[in-house]
Amino acid sequence: MRLTQPLLQLPIGFDAETLAAEVRALPAAAWEPHPQKFPGNEAVPLVAYGGELNNSVAGPMGPTEYLLRCPYMMEMMAELGGVWGRSRLMGLGAGADVPPHVDINYYWRTHLRIHIPVITNPEVMFTCGDESVHMAAGECWVFDSFQLHTVRNRGADQRVHLVLDTVGSEHLWDMIASAEAAGAGPQERPTLRPGEGQSDDLVFEQINVPKVMSPWEIQCHIAYLAERTVPDPMVAPVMKRLGKFVAGWTAAWARFGTSDQGEETYRQLIEATRDDLYGMAADHLVLSNGRKLFFFLDALLFANALAQEKTRKLIEVAAPIGELPAAAIEPAARPAAPAVAPPSSRDQFDRPAFIVSTPRSGSTLLFETLAQAPGLYTVGGESHGVIERISGLTPAARGWSSNRLTAEDATPEAVEQMAAAFHERLRDRAGNAPYGRARMLEKTPKNALRVPFLDAAWPDAMFVYLYRDPRQTMASMIEAWTSGRFRTYPRMPGWDGPPWSLLLVPGWQRFKGWPVPQIVAQQWAITTRTLLEDLARLPRERVRVVVSSEFLATPQAEMERLAYSLDLGWDRPLTSELPLAKHTVSRPDPDKWRAVEDLITGVWPVVEQADADARAFVASLRS
Question: What is the model's pTM?
Answer without folding.
Answer: 0.53
